[in-house]
Design goal:
Layout: E1 11-14, E2 24-31, E3 34-40, H1 44-74, H2 81-91
Length: 97
């Protein structure tokens, strides 16, 4: 598998801590100032979705490899395979967003 070009995971979602800050996503990769800031969100559920992105991308790549292998072996194309390939391309910046 190719080396990641984004901030490596794991990423974690953090909710408002009572100080009035918006929910955010942090990387566990530490820089000089602490955790690496990934994103700030209006909703905690959005932060959770963003925090799941590195794991979802890794799982999608593993799954699409299996689906491509099966397509070559049997000629069967599975529903959703093209959507999954497009989502991987989008996540990797290979497609205009």
């Amino acid at each position: 598998m190719e080396k990641t070009k984004h901030t490596p995971g794991p990423w974690t979602a953090h909710d408002d801590d009572g100080t009035g800050t918006l929910p955010c996503v942090l990387s566990e990769k530490v820089n000089a100032g602490g955790n690496f800031y990934i994103a700030q969100c209006n909703l905690f559920k959005d932060a959770c979705l963003i925090a799941a992105a590195p794991g979802l991308l890794e799982a999608a790549k593993i799954l699409i490899s299996s689906l491509v292998w099966e397509r070559k072996r049997s000629g069967i194309t599975y529903a959703g395979a093209e959507i999954l390939e497009a989502a991987i391309d989008k996540a990797e910046g290979k497609e205009e967003v």
